[in-house]
Design the sequence.
């Protein structure tokens, strides 16, 4: 039991990702409760796309998300903070290549 | 859409991350009634379908603040608002073509129960969630068959409203069917609730099945009964709870202004504020 499986036998939590009309990839928009993945999809449709936001929805059980821990933040992310050579800023980007 | 930019996006659209590109269902539709089309008859169809939607939406709205789950509350409210949107367009059209010049509020707030033309199944009290799901299934199947046929209606506005409504009601039917299957295929309690709901709805189903309000406007005779029977059979086989398809009952029903005792109470609540403050706007 990791706190995402519902209280008092309630429905489990799902994370919702919506690909907007203008978006290139699915973006996390929030979470909801549902009995199973199919119900989570319909709930996500009703909760998160009612203002014409989306063209595609993904749902995933919150319990299935493995997340990095806050106390691992420095070893995980600090080392990349000073390595400017990892950025593609030393290249000429052609004008006709979008979305970079 | 008023012109697109180089990358196919609408200019001025960029500052909105979500929720753009709304379409007016009547955009580009000629409001003129074609020659030879009877305005009063068009208004009759519009009012009947709008009354189903308005009364159905009101019953669904009764779930707000007390649905079993927050997600379901919003889902039911969404369905109700879809129906309300259809009702508004249909009332507005009825007022245009029947020569009375009435607006949508006149139809919704300033008619008595006997002037309403909704199916009696729409009027029955909210009931429990099983009854709500079952009623929504029955009404959505019938409405979808009607709207599907009305896409070919001789009135271009009615046809456009039907066109938009088909996608909405297709989802309503999906939502309701999934829940009826879940309840029938669920626990002993949920199955018992669904069986009881079927029993409560059964006396009013024949009127839904034999609704010929769309005849002469693109809906083939018997189309509603055939579509409903097929849909209900599919759902019943998956849910394990039989859904009856009653034989034609005859007699005057909601389409003739004959209603259950539940409609006046519903209208009293729906119309209360508008009647207490005539002419008010907000």
Sequence:
């Amino acid at each position: 039991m990791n706190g995402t499986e519902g209280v008092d036998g309630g429905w489990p939590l799902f994370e919702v990702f919506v690909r907007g009309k203008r978006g290139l990839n699915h973006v996390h928009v929030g979470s909801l409760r549902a009995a199973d993945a199919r119900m989570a999809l319909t709930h996500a449709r009703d909760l998160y796309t009612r203002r014409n936001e989306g063209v595609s929805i993904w749902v995933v059980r919150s319990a299935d998300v493995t997340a990095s821990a806050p106390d691992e933040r420095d070893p995980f992310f600090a080392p990349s903070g000073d390595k400017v050579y990892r950025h593609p800023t030393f290249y000429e980007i052609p004008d006709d290549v979008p979305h970079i | 859409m008023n012109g697109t930019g180089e990358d196919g996006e609408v200019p001025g659209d960029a500052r909105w991350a979500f929720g753009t590109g709304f379409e007016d269902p009547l955009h580009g539709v000629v409001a003129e009634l074609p020659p030879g089309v009877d305005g009063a008859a068009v208004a009759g169809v519009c009012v009947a379908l709008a009354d189903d939607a308005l009364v159905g939406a009101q019953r669904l709205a009764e779930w707000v603040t007390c649905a079993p789950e927050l997600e379901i509350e919003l889902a039911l409210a969404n369905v109700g608002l879809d129906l309300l949107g259809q009702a508004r367009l249909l009332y507005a059209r009825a007022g245009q073509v029947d020569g009375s010049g009435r607006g949508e509020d006149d139809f919704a707030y300033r008619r008595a129960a006997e002037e309403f033309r909704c199916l009696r199944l729409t009027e029955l009290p909210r009931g429990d969630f099983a009854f709500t799901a079952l009623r929504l299934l029955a009404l959505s199947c019938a409405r979808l068959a009607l709207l599907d046929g009305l896409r070919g209606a001789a009135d271009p506005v009615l046809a456009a409203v039907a066109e938009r409504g088909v996608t909405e009601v297709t989802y309503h039917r999906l939502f309701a069917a999934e829940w009826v299957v879940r309840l029938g295929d669920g626990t002993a309690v949920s199955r018992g609730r669904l069986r009881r709901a079927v029993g409560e709805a059964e006396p009013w189903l024949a009127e839904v099945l034999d609704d010929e309000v769309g005849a002469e406007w693109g809906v083939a005779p018997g189309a509603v009964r055939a579509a409903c029977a097929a849909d209900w059979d599919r759902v019943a086989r998956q849910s394990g709870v039989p859904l009856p398809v009653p034989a034609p009952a005859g007699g005057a029903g909601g389409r003739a202004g004959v209603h259950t005792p539940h409609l006046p109470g519903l209208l009293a609540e729906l119309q209360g504020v508008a009647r207490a403050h005539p002419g008010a706007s907000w």
About this structure: Confidence is low (pLDDT under 50) at residues 1-6 of chain A.
